[in-house]
Design goal:
By secondary structure, the protein is of the alpha+beta class. The chain has 10 helices and 9 strands. It has one domain. The structure holds coenzyme A and zinc ion (ZN).
Length: 279
């Protein structure tokens, strides 16, 4: 059985310490059986980060109007969909703040949790001004626990900073540019979303090579899980560098992936326009 003290030691060995901010993506089954469950892992982070540090996790609900089977987003009650049991421990912590973004909300606990999560509903889901952007701007880290870069949502922020040509191609054409949300008084409203939308992340593991070449990744372990720690701003710089050279670098090669196929077409046209202007 893994204890909170074991986890604290692992987090410290990776390089996190008091006052740090960190976005965490986790597969808890890879960590192993924890005495005290996901709450003990959260407490280990809070002990290491101290009162001035902040932990952030995705509690994405993908509550796009037109997405089959989607309930309206209720900031106070809707759990994250597919972001793991650890994110529930963070979301339901008594000191947690959760952003009000109806499709890509983020939950956070710690010194700057309120500041990082507020205003998210007015900006692009994973763009400038989003919690993951703010945490990186504050010198924060990204930590992948038992998962790889295809779960590293901050890479989408890097796509926005690189001004990738495909940001307005939606994940699924049937999903609307609006979301249904539950207001504090229980009313359900349909609200417009920012035109830039995060796409597919299935191809993101390809970034591992350039990140390692630039020395951005620190490898370690959390319990039995492999873990990778990186600074958000350093990661953004590598994303910008690779997209400048190869704008379609992060799009997946799955022939059945509708969004990446559409995004590649848009990218090809943008590259051709750029070449014409140069010649
Ligand atoms: C999808 C995903 C969450 C699945 O991972 P997972 O390990 O199977 O699921 P969870 O992280 O929810 O952990 C569940 C495990 O926690 C453990 N667990 C549950 N309750 C526990 C408790 N009280 N005490 C100790 N361990 C417990 C169990 O091992 C459980 O696995 P089991 O049901 O097979 O026994 C993971 O692959 C992933 O993608 N994580 C990152 C998500 C993310 O950040 N996405 C961003 C957008 S792409
Ligand atoms: Zn894809």
């Amino acid at each position: 059985m893994i204890t909170k003290e074991d986890l604290k030691r692992d987090i410290l060995v990776l390089g996190l310490g008091p006052g740090d901010h960190v976005v965490v993506h986790t597969s808890l089954s890879k960590v192993g059986r924890i005495d005290g469950g996901p709450e003990a892992l959260l407490q280990a982070f809070l002990d290491v980060l101290g009162p001035e540090g902040t932990i952030l996790v995705p509690t994405f609900t993908y509550s796009f109007s037109g997405r089959p089977g989607t309930a309206p987003f209720d900031r106070w009650h809707t759990p994250g969909s597919r972001t793991g049991i650890f994110t529930e421990a963070v979301r339901t912590h008594p000191n947690a703040h959760r952003s009000a973004h109806p499709t890509h909300s983020v939950a956070a606990v710690g010194g700057r949790a309120k500041e990082f999560t507020e205003g998210h509903e007015s900006v692009s889901a994973l763009g400038i001004g989003s919690p993951m952007y703010k945490a990186a701007e504050a010198g924060g880290y990204i930590l992948l626990v038992g998962v790889t870069h295809n779960r590293n949502s901050s890479i989408h922020v890097g796509e926005v900073l690189a001004n990738a040509p495909y940001l307005r191609e939606h994940f699924c054409e049937a999903w609307k540019r609006t979301a249904r949300v539950v207001r504090e008084d229980g009313r359900i409203e349909e609200i417009p979303l920012h035109p830039e939308v995060p796409g597919c992340s299935a191809g993101f593991d390809i970034i591992d090579v350039p990140l390692r070449k630039r020395g951005v990744i620190k490898d370690g372990r959390i319990g039995n899980a492999d873990a990778m720690l990186m600074k958000g701003l350093e990661m953004f710089a590598v994303v910008r560098e690779v997209l400048e050279k190869h704008p379609a670098f992060l799009l997946c090669d799955n022939v059945g992936c509708d969004v990446c196929t559409r995004r590649k077409t848009v990218t090809g046209a943008a590259v051709a326009r750029k070449q014409m202007r140069r010649s």
